[in-house]
Structure of Subtilase-type protease inhibitor:
Amino acid sequence: MIALRAAVLAVAVAGVAAAPAQAQSSTPLPSALTLTVSKSTVPAAGPRTVLLVCSPTVGGTHPNAAAACGELAAVGGDLERLHGHPMRFCPMIYDPVTITAEGVWNGASVSYRHTYPNSCGALNRSTYVFAF
C-alpha cells in the first residue's frame, strides 16, 4: 500500500516539475490514482488496493487499466459522474463497502470516498474503475 502511494506521489511530483514546460509542449499532465475497496464486515480480509495510471502512459496494477482509464476520461476524471450498470438491481442486504480514490487527474489532486450498503451498490458506481 505504501509503495502504491509512493508511486502516485512520484507521478504527481513529476507532473508538477514538468508544469512550466507544459506551456511549450503537448506533454500530458499526470493521471494516477490509488483505488481501494474495503468491506467493514470483513476487516481481517483487508482492503483491496490497486494503482491505476492513465497518463502519461496507461498501466499500474489495475487488472483492466485501459478500460478504467477510458471510463474516467469520459467523465473528465470526476468520480461523482461515473455510472456503472444502469439496470442492475441490488439485494437489500446490508454489508457495507467503502471505495476510495486518491491521487492526481490531469495534474489536479483527487480525493474521493463513498460507502455503499453492499458490493452490488458499489459496482453500480462504475463498470471498470472499481472492478478489481
Q: What stands out?
A: Residues 39 and 97 are 5 Å apart (CA to CA).
